[in-house]
Predict the structure.
Amino acid sequence: MADKIIKPKLKTRRNLLKSIGAGTGILAGATALPGWVRYSQAQTSEPIRIGFQVHRTGIGAAYGRWYDRTTTAAAKLINDMGGINGRALEIIAEDDGTDPKRGAEVLEKFANQHKCDLAFGTLFSHVVIGSAPRAGELKLPYFVVSEGHHVASGMLNRYTLQPGITDVKSQVQAMAPFVADNLGKKVTMIFPDFAFGHDHRDYFSAAIEKQGGTVVAKIAIPPTESSFTKYFPKIPRDTDVIYHVMVGPAVLTFVKEMGEFYGPNKPQIFGFIDSLEAVDLNSPGLEFLEGSYFWEGNPRYAQANQSEHDKFYRAAVGVDDNGASVSDPKDVSTYSHMFGCWETLFTIKTGMEAAGYQGTDDRSKLIEAVESITDIPLSREHPQGAKVFNSKTHQVFGHQYISKVEGGKLKLAHTTSIEDTLYPDETDYTKQSF
Amino acid sequence: MDLGPYLLLASLEGAVQAAVLALTAVGLSLVFGVMRIVNVAHGEFFMLGAVFAWWIATFFGGHPAIGFIAALLIAPLLTGLVAVIVDWFVLKRLEYDPEGTIVATIGVLYIIQQVVLMTYGPDARPVEAPFNHRFYFPWFGYSSYKLFVIAAAIAILIGVWMIMAKTRIGLVLRATQLDRETATAFGIEVNRIYALVFGLGAALAAMAAVLIVPIQQAHYLMGGDPLLLSFIVVIIGGLGSLRGTVVAAALIGMSDGIISVFFTPTLAKILATLLVAMVLVYRPNGLFGTRSA
């Protein structure tokens, strides 16, 4: 035994010297390569690099696919318009596997390996919450497209902003009066058991109580669940309205099994379209949804009063009037969320132009410039609708849509005002130093 | 909901789960019993079955029943073929070494999962059920297809039992399971038997997946849960014991269904895992396991 230990030691020492020698050689060779110090003198001719944290795999994959298409379309348009401050925009996409741990690693890659100017595009709230602290440490501006209330709640930091999509708290607050007035006062909530679902649970319960309603049951379902019938008996019989919001690969199963469970004698159903994002509304088993209501972030089906901006945006991303891909009518988009990528990229452009952004040294100037944005009018750059950005909470506020299922399509029934979605500030990020 | 209908729904849900679980676990148990191999990639064969089912159903089009029946026939065959290739390409080269094959099948797990991710993609896709009728009890509705799943799984299990108990090939399988060397001495080509068993085990998992895919959807990560539950079932039932596997699958499936409905799905998983621990401590060979060499 002792013999065995000593001998390799001698060998190792020799090998070590050898490998040190070889390593120095490689290092010297590498620094001599022209690529090693490329562009360090010519920073302004470099493209602006935006690290795109995308859910290519994992439970967020369907969203990721469409976030990717929307981002690519917006980046192309920005480049066609002449780029940002005369520089081309380059999107560097990295898959985070819809995994918070991987999310933080991806941000590190953006900052240190790809030398990105900022990071952008994350949807799932647990990935945002897992990544944002690292963004703060890296001093990397992090523009999320997530809906979670974690930005406006003050949980994150000055480097994290959400200027392209509204948050759950404002959405559900605007939904509660409609639910209480039109559907019923006793609500059973079914939601995914993670941060995003908990936002729904907490803020909708509070909002419906203000309308004189009550939440009679709160049913939390793990987002990786694949079978749902077992949860439905927990819905109390005296429920007037089922409020459902689900995410993950099994959303179609969830809605189908709800239909199977109830049959014709169902309570009123109010869903967040998340439960059927990227799913064809005419899938077999979904007929029972006829006449039910959905929250939509942005109406999936082109409406009678469609704005020219929505028309333009739809065509640029490649979405038809039914909200599906123009090349494959079965490939349904995540229309209520993906506009956030489009709008966020244009807000970044506006911010960079206002700040005279030159390079990573100007990151704090960029954040200050975005913080100085207040009114965002309806436009090609912001096709979902006009918005108001709150610089203190780093959160944007905007119109919400309620649609009714009619003839297998979603028809806009009600549009909330921006005022319906406002609530008092819970934090002031501008007081944090960079 | 009142206790009676509540219990009925819970039992139905439990029975569906038990049926699918029994098929998957019998495949795993068969492979272990005959080949003495712990196949960690078993859940991926389940997933492959579902993915093949989607491809076949899409290819055939037409009435959903045509695609479904085609999938039920072809998907297990294709999955079995993949398993035979794995056996010939990987397991045979390792001479069926118990430790080596565990590591190798972990590798196979990732290869299958990533290949499916690269080709089929990360989406969950539905296969339409061959029929869509629903029963309406006074308290709740229930899909008749789910009842069909229970019946189909029982039929397939009876088929497996008939093969094992009544046919010549079953005799050869049992002989190999009992004593590999003596079987070789009697002129049984053990290598071929191993390839057959590995293919059959994977095909059973694939059949379970084809049955389940109209209820759930084909997704590249769907193999995790069936693998875990199959291991639980096989450990409780006794590795290599088909009877034990079926009984344990019924026990775990039913209790999972009932506990999930009355309490929470998490509690059901906790109790199942606790049961495994108890079995390992007090009956290391499982409820029906025999002390084999």
